[in-house]
Amino acid sequence: MTGPSLRVLVVAADAKDARFAAQVLSDFGDEAEIAGDVHDALQRLTRARFDLALISLSLPRGDGLALVHHVRALYPSIDVVVLSTTSEIEDAAHAMALGVLQSVMLPLTGDALLVAAGRSRERQVLIAERTRLTVDEARSRRRTATYSRCAALVSETDTSAMAERLLDACAGEVALRGGAVYLPQGPGLREHARVASLGPADVFPSVLGDADIMTFDPTQIVQERQVGDVSGYRVSLFGDTELAGWIDLLPEDTPIADRAKEGLELVGHFGAAAFTAKRRIDAIARFGIKDPDTSAYTFAYFGDVAGREIDRAARHGRRFALLTVNVEGLGASSATMDSRHELRRAMTDAILESVRDSDVLARVEDDEYYLLLPESGLLGGLAARRRIHRRFREVSALRYSKVDPTVGISVYPVDGSDLGTLLRVSRRRSDRSRDGVWRRLNLGEMRFWEALGTLLGSEDDVGLRADGSIALHPDLAGTRDQHSLARHFALPRSLLPRLGATLTQDAVRHRVAGTVYAAGDPVLEDAVSHAAAGAEVTPVRVWVLGEGKGVTSPFRLPIHDGRLQSQVMMMSLTEMGGYVLVGRQLSEDTLFAYHASDLDVVDGLVTSLQSEYYLQRETG
User: Fold this and answer.
1) Residue 373: which H helix or E strand, with range?
2) Which end of the chain is more exposed for a tag (fewer CB within 10 A), N or C?
3) Distance between CA 31 and CA 233 in Å, rounded?
4) pLDDT tens, residue by residue, 546-570
5) Contact 600, 581 (CB under 8 A)
6) Residue 587: strand pairing partners
7) Contact 180, 212 (CB under 8 A)
8) Average model confidence (pLDDT) across the chain
9) Are 501 and 530 in contact (CB under 8 A)?
10) How much is the average pLDDT of 60-70?
11) Residue 245 CA to chain centroid, in angstroms?
C-alpha cells in the first residue's frame, strides 16, 4: 500500500454491504468502522476523526442524502463516497453537486471500493503536502524577516538601540508579553545590567549577578527558565570565548514551538557577534593607541587600563594577574628587517590567540610584552603561560624558527598594590625563569618520571657522609637553583608527616583554589588525609596517589603504578604559590630529597604528573 492508511466510516443500508466494504478496506490496511444507522453515524463523527465516509443513498426516509449534506457542511475535511443504485441517479447527481469524491454503484465490488479509497488517499497526501509547503513558506518569510532585523545591527552604534532591535527580532519569532536585554557592565565583570526592555519592565530585575551566571549552559542557546513567578525563556549571547549578554523573554504561550526556538537561536548568534564586535570597536575608539607594527596595544593604553583595573580590584576586593612576556630569538631567527617584522606579528598573534578577549596585551619594546588578566590569580596566570608556550611551539614549528618566550607572573594584591611593584616582581620572575633549572635542563621536553630522575639522579649519584650531610655527583649540582629556590637536602623521615599536614592545613585554612598531591609514604599520606578531612569545605583539592599501604582515604586515587610507592612525593600548587618535595630512601630514617618553590619547577612537575595520569589541571 502507498500513501497513508485511512480511517473510514461505513454507513450502508444493507448490513452485508457494510461488512463487505469494511472487510475490503481493512484487508488493505485501513481502519473501518460500521455505523448501524444515521444516529449512530452522527455519534461516531463527534467522537473520532475520520478521513473517508462511505454513505449509502438507499438509507430509509432519504436519510442518506441528508447525511451527505450534514458531513459536507460540518466536516469538510472528510471525503465522502456515496453508494447508489441505478434507480438513484438523481440523488447521486445531487450528491456530486454537494462535492462528494465519487459515486460507487451497487452491487459493490472490491476494485470499485479500492479505487474510491485510493482517490481519497491521494487527496490526503496532497493536503498534507500543501500544509507542509504553507508552513515552510511561512517559516521562510519569518526567517527572512529575522535576517533583515538582525542585519540592521551591523550599522547600529548605540547599545540601547542594538538591544531594542534584538527584542524586535525575538518578537518576530514568538509572540511576547515582555522581554529584556542584559549586557556586562564592563570587560571581565560578572554583573549584567538591563539595557532595554519590552512590556512590563518591573518583571525583570535591573541587574543579573553571579547566581544567574551559574545557570548558564553554553551548550544551549535557548533555555527555559523562571522569570519572576512565570515561565519564560533565556537566550544566551555567547561568543567564541565569553558570554556577551542575555535576553530574557516572556512568551504569550509556553512551551514555544521548535521552529521558534530555532529562530531565537539565530537571533542569539547575531546578537553575540554584534555586541562582541561593538565592544572591540569601542575599546579601539575610546583609546585608539595601537602598536603600529602588531595588533597589540602600546604601554600608554596598558598603563591606563591597568590603573583602572587596580582601582576596581581595590574597591571590590578582586584580584588580577600581570604577565611580562620576553620573546627571545627574534633577531637571530630572521635575516632581514621584513622577516623579523613578519615573525614579530606572528608571535604577537600567538599570544593573543592564547588569552581571552577581556585580557589586555601591550607591546612595550621590540621583544617584550605586558599582559593583564582581569579577575585571574596565580593559577590563571600559570594556565595562560602554558597556553602561550604551547602556541609558540606550534608557530615556531610552522615557521622553522626557534622562538622561546620567558614569562613572569605577579598577582594583585599578593605581590604588590601598584603597577610599578607588580611589573618589577613579574620581570624578576621572568629573569629567574630564563636562568632557572626547568629551562636550563630542558625538563619541559621530558615526561614526568624522566624529569624526576634527572632531578634526583640514581642511587650511585648520592652518598650520606658521617656528619649527616650528603655527597652529590657533580652532574646533580646543575639541578640546583642559584637563588636557593630548588636544592637537595637530607630529610629525617620523621618530619614528613609534619610537613604534609602543615602544607595541607595552610592550603585549606586560606580557602584557596589549587591541588595538593601526596604519595610514597603511608605516614605522610595519612597525615595529609587527616588534615584535609578535618577542614571545612574549601576549593583546594587534596589527593593521595597510588594504591598505598596507609589507611583507606576518601582522598585516594588508586593509580596502579609501583613507582608511586618507590619515591616519596609531596606537591602543592595553589593560589598561595607552589611547593614540591620528592625523594627516596637514603638510610633507614633519612630521605634524599629535592625540594623547590621555583614556580617553573613546581608548575612543570605538577602539570607533567597530571598529564602522566590524566588528572584534572589547574586553570584558575
Assistant:
1) strand 368-374
2) N
3) 42
4) 887 655 567 888 898 989 988 899 9
5) no
6) 590
7) no
8) 83
9) yes
10) 89
11) 15
Q: Which residues contact 162 (CB under 8 A, 6 or more apart)?
A: 153, 156, 271, 274, 275, 278
Residue bearing cell 596502579: 560
* CA nearest to 591, candidates 570, 565, 568: 568
Please state, as a whole number, how many other Cβ atoms lie within 10 Å of the Cβ of residue 352: 19
**pTM metric for this prediction:** 0.54
CA-wise closest residue to 117 among 83, 76, 92, 93 = 83
The enclosing H or E element of 591 equals strand 590-596
Residue 143: its pLDDT value, please? Answer: 61
Calpha distance 396→374 (Å, rounded): 28
Measured between alpha carbons, how far apart are the two ends of the chain, in Å? Answer: 64
The C-alpha torsion from 386 through 390 and 395 to 396, rounded to 10°, is 100
Q: Which three cell numbers mark 196? A: 532595554
* Amino acid letter for position 13: A
Other C-beta atoms within 10 Å of 287: how many?
A: 15
Q: How many CB atoms lie within 10 A of CB 327?
A: 24
Whether 488 and 470 have beta carbons less than 8 Å apart is answered as yes
Residue 482 dihedral angles phi and psi, to the nearest 5°: -65, -20
* pLDDT tens string 428-453: 999 888 888 898 889 989 999 999 99
pLDDT, average across residues 383-390: 91
Beta strands in 431-507 (DSSP E): 462-464, 470-472, 486-492
pLDDT of residue 173: 82
503 vs 414: CA distance, rounded Å:
19
State the DSSP string of 225-285: EEETTEEEEEEEEE-SSSEEEEEEEEESSSSPPHHHHHHHHHHHHHHHHHHHHHHHHHHHH
Output 229 or 314, whichever has higher pLDDT. Answer: 314
Q: What is the dihedral of CA 141, 146, 148, 150, to 10 degrees?
A: -170
Distances (CA, A) of 477 to 97, 148, 432, 444, 493: 109, 70, 17, 19, 23
Which domains does the chain carry?
7-126 (3.40.50.2300), 156-284 (3.30.450.40), 299-435 (3.30.70.270), 444-613 (3.30.870)
- Rounded CA separation 195/183 (Å): 7
CA 295/CA 283 separation, integer angstroms: 13
SS3 475: helix
Write phi, then psi, for 68 (nearest 5 degrees).
-60, -45
Give residue-wise pLDDT tens across range 485-512: 788 888 999 999 999 999 998 888 888 8
Give the span between the Cα atoms of 479 and 580, in whole angstroms.
Answer: 14
- Taking each helix axis from N to C end, the angle separating 419-435 and 299-316, rounded to the nearest 10 degrees, works out to 110
In whole angstroms, give the CA distance from residue 403 to residue 561.
36
The whole-angstrom separation of Cα 172 and Cα 238 is: 21
Report pLDDT digits (tens) over 316-334. 888 999 999 988 765 554 4
Give me 165's grid cell: 532591535
pLDDT band at 613 (very low <50, low <70, confident <90, very high): very high
The 3-class SS string of 325-336 reads EEEECHHHHCCC
What pLDDT does 43 receive? Answer: 92
Q: Nearest-CA neighbor of 609 among 540, 513, 520, 545?
A: 545
Question: Does 239 have pLDDT greater than 60?
Answer: yes
